[in-house]
Design a protein that fits this description.
It contains eleven helices and twelve strands. The chain is of the alpha/beta class. It has a single domain, classed as P-loop containing nucleotide triphosphate hydrolases (Rossmann fold). Keywords: ATP-binding, Nucleotide-binding, Transport.
């Protein structure tokens, strides 16, 4: 069962450089959320701050009624047990077998017997589809398998919150599609709170329940998937639909001359909102929303062909 994360007025800087400021959002319990943003906007810093690896300059992070920012180290250590983290490269120990990598947190943080550990590790291997690879070293397997092994290790302590730091980094589109399906299926099975940092627009448009966008040192928007995919907010519209026209340039912000040159250009129409990725077996996740439900409830007319088979035939470049 996932838990809610409530972030209020979070600000982080390194020296004189402000990474982001006054970030406020709520990650709903048990739902899949995605955090997007141009390179260098501090998405990975946000993940590290959520788990208490970095301390913010200001603000609060409330989990189960406790503010992580003010906790003593011993109490923070206990809160971190709620988290599982999948790092970009899997962060596996190169000299250990996959089995020992996944067993490592159990051996370090619990007093379970080796027979209990073996049962748990085997369950996680099966969950991520790595049966038969237990004795392999990380250097002997593909990047996609390393991601799945890293995910198995993130799951081994049965966390209620799972953070994914660019899980699709270095993967081809086919492996990314398999990983996305695995994430959706896992959420249906364990009902944990998921937060995914990614650059992959197709992932952001089809996988999550909620989307956030960090831009220009602040949170531009956070909310249900359909809200952002139907948004006319310039930076949200440009980024989520991979469009050239808009405030984002090669160096994050376009200058006045670039924006003036675009003045008067007609924006391309919003693409259809695709169906959300479902589970492999067709079951409905507990927090999955009805297609078009947010748009209907908020009086928003979605782009033509949204939530239909046609919407899946127009992929957005990422």
């Amino acid at each position: 069962m996932g838990v809610e994360i409530r972030v209020e007025g979070l600000t982080k800087s390194f020296g004189s450089q402000t990474i982001w400021q006054d970030v406020t959002l709520t990650l709903p319990a048990g739902e899949i959320s995605v955090m997007l943003g141009p390179s260098g906007t501090g998405k990975s810093v946000f993940l590290k701050t959520l788990v208490g690896l970095l301390k913010p300059d200001r603000g609060s992070i409330f989990i189960e009624g406790r503010d992580l920012v003010t906790l003593r180290e011993s109490d923070l250590y206990e809160i971190r047990k709620l988290f599982g983290v999948l790092f970009q490269d899997g962060a596996l120990f190169g000299s250990m077998s996959l089995y020992d990598n996944i067993a490592f947190p159990l051996r370090e943080h619990t007093r379970k017997s080796e027979s209990e550990i073996r049962q748990i590790v085997n369950e996680k291997f099966e969950l991520v589809g790595l049966q038969g690879a237990e004795d392999k070293l990380p250097g002997e397997i593909s990047g996609g398998m390393r991601k799945r092994a890293g995910l198995a290790r993130a799951l081994v302590l049965d966390p209620e919150i799972i953070l994914f730091d660019e899980p699709d980094s270095g993967l081809d589109p086919v492996r990314t599609a398999y990983l996305n399906q695995l994430i959706v299926d896992l959420n249906a099975q364990i009902d944990a709170t998921f937060l995914i940092v990614t650059h992959d627009i197709n992932t952001a448009r089809t996988v999550p329940d909620n989307i956030g966008l960090l831009y220009h040192r602040h949170l531009a928007m956070f909310g249900p998937r359909e809200m952002l995919l139907s948004s006319e907010e310039p930076v949200v519209r440009q980024f989520l639909n991979a469009q050239r026209i808009g405030p984002i340039g090669m160096s994050e912000e376009k200058d006045a001359d670039e924006l003036a040159a675009e003045s008067g250009q007609e924006l391309p129409p919003l693409p259809p909102i695709p169906m959300q990725l479902g589970t492999s077996d067709g079951t409905v996740r507990r927090h999955q929303r009805e297609p078009g439900g947010w748009c209907r409830d908020n009086g928003v007319t979605p782009p033509p062909r949204s939530f239909s088979d046609d919407s899946m035939s127009e992929p957005v470049a990422s």
